[in-house]
Amino acid sequence: MSAEPEQAGGTMPTVDALAPATTADAVALPRRRTALQSAWRLLKTAPPTAWFGMLVLGAYFIVSIFAPLIAPYGEADIVGDQFAPWSSQFVFGTDQLGRDMLSRLIFGARNTIGIAVLTTAVSFSIGGTLGMLAAVLGGWVDQVLARLVDVLMAIPQLIFALVLLVIFGPSITNLILIIAVLDSTRVFRLTRAVAMNVVVQDFVEAARLQGEKIAWIMGREILPNILPPLVAEFGLRFCFVFLTIAALSFLGLGIQPPTADWGSMVRENSTLINYGDITPLLPAGAIALLTVAVNFVVDWFLHKTSGLKE
Amino acid sequence: MAAANAMTEGQSRGDRGTVGDLLLEIKGLRIEGQSEDVWHEIVKGVDLTLHRGEVLGLIGESGAGKSTIGLAAMGYARPGCRISAGSIVFDGVDMAKLSEAEKRKIWGRRVAYVAQSAAASFNPAHKLIDQYVEAPSWHHVLSAQDAKRQAVDLFRRLQLPDPESIGDRYPHQVSGGQLQRAMTAMAMACRPDLLIFDEPTTALDVTTQIEVLAAIKDVVRQSHTAAIYISHDLAVVAQMADRIMVLRYGNLVEEAPTRQMLSNPQQAYTKSLWAVRSLRKQEEASENVQLRVDHVDAAYGGAIKVLHDVELTVPRGRTVAVVGESGSGKSTLARVITGLLPPTKGAVMFNGTALPPSIRNRSKELLRRVQMIYQMPDTALNPRRRVRDILGRPLEHQMGLRGAQRDQRIVELLKMIELDERFLDRLPSELSGGQKQRICIARALAVNPELIICDEVTSALDQIVAEEILKLLMRLQKELKVSYLYITHDLATVKAIADQVVVMFQGRVVQSGLRSQVLAPPHHPYTAKLLSSVPEMDPDWLDGLLARRRQPA
Predict the structure, then answer these.
(1) B71–A3 C-beta distance less than 8 A
(2) CB of B22 within 8 A of CB of B54?
(3) What number of other Cβ atoms are within 10 A of residue A162's Cβ?
(4) Is it the case that residue A14 has pLDDT exceeding 60?
(5) CA-to-CA distance for A4 and A14, rounded, in angstroms?
(6) Considering CB atoms only, which of A3, A29, A224 is closest to B68?
(7) ipTM more than 0.85?
(8) CB nearest to B398's CB, from A6, A210, A220
(9) Quick check: B272 and A16 CB within 8 A?
(10) Which chain B residues in 292-321 lie under 8 Å from chain A, judged by CB atoms?
(11) Prior bond of B522 cis (ω within 30°)
């Protein structure tokens, strides 16, 4: 208690009028670091795994944004023979319809990552809002929401998603909404748990006594305090959503042709494995690499925010 | 000396040197703490000597380095801290140079530590006796059987109820005061040469504090153990210590035997510490009632009744202190008044009209008039919002101030609480405890309230800072004519600020009236007990009190 190292922000013990009040007046305010500087300080402490993860993620995002510029051919253009081998013209060969594999990989990054990010964002908006609402209101709202989530979680996610996609039809909007809703259950549980710890604190009660509305309490008092675990969870959920989409595509109910996407690319070219061709492993490898990269970054971030040493 | 043998020979435990031998000598101790990437000194060259059978008191405000020195006496530095210079010679061995494994042989066996929060220091999953036995059997000092037998004896000497069976309880099954005594017993299990008490009674209320203090004092005296007693409460240290060291900012301010220190402090800082308790408010009566709590009952979950027929009034512009030990319903009363817990019976009248029982039915205007300040400024301020936003929001939301007008008012408020615009962009983590509490006061004042409920607002602060906060509250009352309902268990605070006093016990008001009437005899028995439990600045006070309490029984 008395041994806490003083903050760099210049926290001097309060001026006491009995002693000459020199200390607090004489201390000049230290300059606040800019966001850029502190971000750089943080990055310098990052372990090699986190650096690797961030570089991979950076590369993926650049590729997906500039896909039309980078890709040698169009996304759905038939440019050669079916199943052409690797050559200088088609770096990774062509697929079952004669489309360039490399181009489809590049466009696949764009589609799959884009849809996964969007889905995760929707899932967090739903789960986060409801989770905080349950924590703030408590009582029957909490009970109803929590039981609803229990019901949704009781059904295996992939199978449930398959059933819903068959019912509503496999359009991209449906895909995003269905996976987002199913995935938001986990976000709900996490948000509710971490928000509970904040809700009981006096500053939330103080805000209530000031007559603040629930939206304000959730957005301004609670959200900033639970953001670090949520950001970390965002990374992890992104991986799972990504894998779910890939799995659904592999099963034929995800992203529909001719849109390029890694899951369906594995399926469509899987026969090549029988002939000792590793081409179908390329989209699978791309999925694996992205998942590993995201996990490296999230691990590091979790370590930082949970305050663990070493 | 025989002491050197005792170091190496676990068996020759009886041979422990005699009272008065030098036990611990710290020279030029410097400890550094790390924040961000910078190391800076927390303890700046302190010397300390301790003889066998002697109790040394360490006092000072928070940040003075008391706890750090206490831990360093064991050769231990907290994570993020390091001992950068100096020697810590314990019975001929320099603890600062020992390896972790060697130190571990000494810890628990020859030096033991009693922490501030017993509840946080016990493992809730194990019985008290099992946790007690751990140290003696790990160090091979006693067999588990002998240790258990000895535990019963120690429990008895520490006046724990049912010494034979209390060890079979789990930590949550005994009270806070009992737990603190059980921890003292645990620390004494190996009959250590040195005990370090780090604010062992700070978290307890006055009536419990007395029991724990008396038990600790007795046991330490009987076993001739040397002890370091760390506290920010002078009166408590005065009861326990033979010699007192006053610390500030990691430096020694003054050192003297207790009696000499009390009667004749030399340094200006020490004198100011002594003067703290002399704050007194001129009591004023008033008939102009602002708030009336009218025969209120309240219960949690509809079942556990906490308040029974509580009645009190707060006159306009005056301070009413609500006193009582923890569990007496003081804070529940605050929740009823603010509308967080609607009463099951009775009503809260404000300016003559009944307030809607639940906060949901109260208008923004009504909410504005009653404000609250909390005990723990750390949790009462959102750690992610800057002072500008914390104060700006109520001004926008309640007072409708915008832009430059609002900013001007924020600076005015900061000036009112004796801070200035340099604090505008700070986060709560960049403020000291006292400054945080000032910001809480400013937040309450921002909306020009008529009544402020202060829930133990100074009990988490050390004495000098607490005194500043009390002075500030009194000045603001004079200037702004605001009324206070001041909840506290500390009677020194009551004497300092109250016009009227309400004494609560087990959810009932047992006595109320003007301060001079309540604090003067004849007392209600519970008021008398509360009053007599407040430590006084007299080294003989505790012994005298216990003797007096024993006599009539």
Answers:
(1) yes
(2) no
(3) 17
(4) no
(5) 15
(6) A3
(7) no
(8) A210
(9) yes
(10) none
(11) yes
